[in-house]
Design a protein that fits this description.
The complex is a heterodimer of chains A (about 350) and B (about 120).
Chain A lengths: L9 E5 L3 H13 L3 E5 L2 H10 L4 E4 L8 H9 L9 E5 L4 H9 L4 E4 L4 H28 L2 H10 L4 E14 L2 H7 L2 H21 L3 E6 L2 E6 L8 H25 L7 E16 L4 E6 L1 H16 L3 E4 H6 L6 E7 L8 E6 L4
Parallel strand pairs in A: 1-2, 1-3, 3-4, 4-5, 9-11
Antiparallel strand pairs in A: 6-8, 6-9, 7-8, 9-10, 11-13, 12-13
Chain B lengths: L7 H11 L1 H28 L2 H18 L2 H20 L3 H22 L1
Helix pairs in contact in B: 1-2, 2-3, 2-5, 3-4, 4-5
Chain lengths: ~350, ~120
Amino acid sequence: MHKGGHGGARLLVVDDNKVNRLLLARNLELQGHHVATAENGRVALEMLRREAFDLLLLDIEMPEMNGFQVLEQLVNDLHLRDLPVIVTSSLEGLDNVVRCIELGAEDYLTKPVNPVLLKARIDASLEKKRLRDQQKELVRRFATPEVAQHLQESGFSLGGKRVRGSVMFSDIRDFTPLVESQPPEATIDLLNTYYTLMFNAISGHGGIVSLIIGDGLMAIFGAPLPLADHCDSAVRAALEMIELIGLFNVDQAAAGKPQIRIGVGIASGEMVAGYTGTNERATYTCIGDTVNLASRLELHTKTADCPILIDGATRQGLRGNVELDTLGPVTFRGKAQPVDVFSVKLGQ
Amino acid sequence: MTDTAIHRATFEELKSTAGAEFVHELIDTFLAEAPVMLDDLRHALAMNDADRFRRAAHSLKSNSHTFGALSLGAMARELELGGLRSVRDADGAQLEALTLEYARVARSLTELKRA
């Protein structure tokens, strides 16, 4: 696949006319690209579904399957719809150009194609593709593949919707003294390992990390995609996080490095989930009482000296067998009513 | 040699961007493919197949422009845009003219290859 720079991209040329096909392929090869060819739309789609290409150069007037039909198929194909397409055609009429652009073509070049113009258009398209790939990579890094795909499909429109789910807050106990006791590089190193482990546990149970602040994180189970057993998933993720930290501490101790402890709070119920921010910068998050409660529960783990605390709604939502200790009602700041708090027993 | 069938500046530019040797191969391909397109036009006319007629004319137009065969390109363009009916109305006279012009182009391209 194409990486950085503009030489050496893999391009597919589709044209039923042999002279056009050979000439276009030649011009592109002279520009340093790797070129494959297809003689009609049907063959091209087969190749696109079999091999990876960085860009498609598409003729319109072709037998079996014409260029318009190829564009329609690409738009509806999740794996191919981001593939940049430059239409090269000698079809006349502005309406044809408009139709191609409306169907998602990036550009339209009239044949015979001027090689200098061709190079400029291809370089621009490849650069755009590189940026799009980078964006996808960013999304992938912050979400599970399913969620990333959902985000790609639904777009990033601002605005929320009501969902039922579980929210988790987690942070490192006594982090400040730890930071002060070691060089900053060691702290960043520790945080990176810590986050890798936490992300693994969370996304492994279908959650997404929506927020990272310092040593703390917020994760959502049940949005943007619904999760039938979001309470179980959140609790199982929390148990795995504690277990992973245990293993991490064994390594830390062996290397003579400081060990860490974490606290996790989970609350469940209705919340508003969606993108907030501006069109320039937005983040996926959840807001509402459930979120506040999860944060309070996480803080309360210090007082209660229990690593995982959950609320009554999470307990009621549990489908699997999870052993709990009842801590009784606790009155949190900002909450009028006391809340039933339960501690999840470790090692289950 | 004065050559009215091929616009020399267009042809020379093709040679300088794609390379002389490659253009020779491209001429061979065209000389093999163009008669098929002409056949296609005749068949489409006989079968009253407007789509096939338009596609063949379109293809011939496109290739003519590539080599600088401007007259041939213009004639093919008229067929592409004018469609089957106008040719039928004229009893295929345009196809005859097109075939003659193609023969001129083929001769010129063969000479250019040798030059």
